[in-house]
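Practice problem: Alpha/beta hydrolase family protein
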Amino acid sequence: MQHVGTCTPNDAAQIWRKGWRKWNESKMCLNFTMVDSNVVETGGLAFKAGPGVQADHGNIMAVMHLLLCKIGNETFHTAGNGGVIFTDMQYFHLLKRQFRKRCLCMLPRNALVLLLLLTFLGCMAGCAAEIRRPDALDSFIQNYSADERIFQEDYFDLLTILKGRQGERLRVYIEGDGLAWLDRYTVSPDPTPRTPTALELASRDPFPLILYLARPCQYVRDVHRRNCLPQFWTSARFAEPVVADLNTVIDQVAARTGATSVELVGYSGGGGLAVLVAARRNDVAGILTLAGNLDHQAWTDLHGVSPLRDSLNPKCVAAQVADVPQVHVVGSEDSTVPVSVLRSYMTRGASDVTQTVVLDGVEHTTGWIDVYPAVLEMFDQALTFPVDEEYKN
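Answer key — structure tokens:
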């Protein structure tokens, strides 16, 4: 075997970062189908994961999208070590130019093993194993005899928890973005939140009928990870399939519980989705957002990161929900989604029934539990006596 370089975990990570950015900027060119627990099929080709790596991880799909979009629909084989063999040296040179790293090795008869899949995805599988089901999930279910259910919608399988059985009004909590990135350059293989803030707040809400609604690919495993491509917790986190499936779940739960109106509560990215969902409903009694990302263009500009090109922007539907009572709450110390993002939304979303609240000392992920009883009281009052006023507490 002739080696063109030594593949290290660091090399693999660097390749992934370069490859992910390129893939994330391109459109999907192929769809994926799960054949079994460790095989992904696309375009008539099957890709088998290495030992200990589940093929439904978004990382495998992202890498395959990148390779197939750049190289074309050619014949691939699985190597004995779980890598992918390319049978023509032209692809080796193309990949070398593409990644400009040393993680590729040549095999006899001009075959090439892409060790990136084995090395990097093995690492990512280990990272994913650390993401476990939060204790708050089971505590909420046990404390309130709540009903956990996974809804299989058109595009995603979405986890829900329902507290209560029947009622005229349903209060819906939409979770935040979760663990979208491991660091600035490395996408997470699983967006399940390590600290599910929306769930924590829902568990402290005495409202009799509450639906907790997880985001796509959060908490779910195996066959329930349909369409779990990383774009749906990165550039397409507010995409049409996401909004449509969340809205459909709310329809189904409202019908099941007899609710004739809904209140939408969203944390962080869930706040933006609450506004987007509200814009396509006629039964929304109120919207409460907590550290809500209500203008993702202002947000990405602020942080100097890639725009969410494949996402709908809540700011664009602000006028459509202007007659719905709203309370938008941000923390004064929140550097992730600061008050400037809310102010950008309010340039289109101001109305006589909209309140903005800035809470002193509250950060993006901390401080919410202590102030939440007061926030709920403000929200309840806003639904009864809506006023256009900015508070600073």
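Discussion: The longest strand covers residues 157-163. Students who identified this feature from the tokens alone can consider the problem solved.
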